[in-house]
Amino acid sequence: MLGKLIYDYLQKYSFPYPIDKKICSGWAKDLPSKGETILYTSCMYQTASLSEVYSKFIPYAEKLSPLSFLGRFIKPSKDEIERAYRILNKIAQLLKRNGINFAYLYEEEPYSGAILLELGYLDEFGQYAKSVYNFFKNKGIKRIITVDPHTHNALSRYNEFVEHFDLEIVSYLELVKDVKGVNREETFVIHDSCLYSRFLNLRDVYRDLINKSGIKIVEDELITGVDTSFCCGSPIKPINPDLSDKIAKARVEQLSKLSKNIIVVCPMCYANLSKYGNVKDWIEVVE
Amino acid sequence: MSQDWEIAIQRTINNNVPRVHKILENHKYILDLAKKLREAKMRVLSDLETYVEQTLEAVKRTGGNAYFVNNAEEAKEIVGKIVGKGKIVVFGKSMVAYELGIRKYLQQLGNEVWETDLGEFLIQLADEPPSHIIAPAVHMTKERVAKLLKEKLGFDVSESSSHEELVQKVREFLRNKFLSANVGITGANAVAADVGSIVLVENEGNIRMSTVVPPVHIAIVGVEKIVPTLEDALIEALVQAAYAGLYPPTYINVTSGPSSTGDIEMKRVSPAHGPKEFHLILVDNGRLKASKDPILREALLCIRCGRCHLHCPIYRVLDGSWGDAPYSGPMGAMWSYIIYNDYKPALYCTHSGNCKEVCPMKINIPRVLEYIKYMGNKQRSDK
């Protein structure tokens, strides 16, 4: 069963599939590894581009196990990894600039379990959530700063599965103030994260930040409205990669009617949409 | 995504979505009514068997016949006995009748059967499954509709015919069927447990005619449509119409037993000009079991406004075939599991959350689908 396989990989590699954890931690060098507050990447920015590769393996997942060593050789491209590192460093700098001190767990950082939740493996997710929670508690962690919506959503659901869950989960978006747009001449369109926008109540948080940054945003009731804006197609990729691509293509076509410059707030949205248009993470267009 | 579907769905969204936004903005009381309706429906779903009994008794009090059926076979047996053979039957659109296969069953028995809801009529002609819960032929462009009417019924129409011309031709054809029909079959938007009335909301006038012109009216309704009172049932009609973008609705029909009059010494006598027989068939087919599950119960709150469809990326990108007919779209992914024990449509949910955002009953559809994914995963691992 796929859920069991992912769960086993999580036990073995602290990640849903075999990976060299140095890919995850390579962006950070000068951050403390211990502290009550941590910046938590769940290796999402670093590996988002690999979702394409691994979704193709899903139909053969049960047979994958003996070949798992191959996973250690599958890496994001140099450009992709450098981009992810730049984004994470910029997030860290912005937090510091706003007076937020935090540690980072480097290669010890566990994965959130988001994929188990999103594929409906709730028993496995619950079991995994307990182990991650205990890990955080043993490290003396009290506050977790997330950087992407899938991780934030997964951690926000831990309290359904972990008794007396008492960790504070906060998005870096809620901690960052006053950013300045690097391009104030052209117009941009926001592709909202479904999770931030309709599940985690953070839509206005990043919209306010972007609007105040001086970047010109174009809106349309049928394309960027809270109840009309499309998904990027990423969550369906493990089930149906073709459908995922169709959604991404359709979404970029819609957005491009408003602006050729598309801003996203999620690494998975970037991975899925950037094949079809000029897409940037919002952090790449502010300073 | 076929080109036809892409054109048809985009036209539909452009016509419908801004209109619903405007309706809800201009008539804010609908938001309060929707909240009240959710509470009323939840009361019923928490004790469904009791409300089924209450409804059956109430229908009998008004001179109607009422039945409870567990599944399609039991429903077909009852409908077959009432209708018989060699009759003309007009359908006023019932998704539950579609679910149970009633139309095709009656045809097999040797009856002439016509869907009279325009969308469902087109579906019947094309022999295709419906692609939307309230606009079954939403996948057809105007041009394809013209082609279909010309090919199947020889209507004098072309691809350049207007929407109005197409509607006019169907109207002429169906009017004769209404006038010669022996039996009218409908669903119901709501059933009032306290008085046994059914409430139907519509715009075409076909339901009104199907319920009044033929001498026999059969309503086939899922048990989840039961609400505590007639007031709740009327509220359901208003809320459904508003969220479907068709507000005010052209007609709201209340049927309480067979036709009657009180005009001679105010003694109530039945029948009068309308049907002499009224039959209500309350259908389980998986609903009672779902009502016992606190998460699946939420799905039974659905009032079939079809709004979630037009906001869902999967529904929009697929060609209307997502889910098991007649249940398509996000609500259909829930209902495919409840009725047909099919968890696969739920696997396609990308948790975009638009559906929960627009649902008048505040059903957290992605959360229900997450649960169905979970149940499906368990089913697969048990094999």
Automatic annotation (TrEMBL), chain A:
Domain Cysteine-rich: 189-273
Signal sequence segment: none
Pfam families: CCG (PF02754)
GO MF annotation: an example: oxidoreductase activity
Annotated GO CC locations: plasma membrane
Protein name from the UniProt record: (Fe-S)-binding protein
Automatic annotation (TrEMBL), chain B:
Cell membrane listed as a keyword: no
Pfam families: Fer4_8 (PF13183), LUD_dom (PF02589)
Keyword terms, alphabetized: 4Fe-4S, Electron transport, Iron, Iron-sulfur, Metal-binding, Repeat, Transport
Highest taxon in the source lineage: Archaea
Residues of the 4Fe-4S ferredoxin-type domain: 292-323
GO MF annotations, alphabetized: 4 iron, 4 sulfur cluster binding; oxidoreductase activity
Keyword match Zinc: no
Any one biological process term the GO annotation gives: lactate metabolic process
Name of this chain's protein: L-lactate dehydrogenase complex protein LldG
Organism in which the protein naturally occurs: Sulfurisphaera ohwakuensis
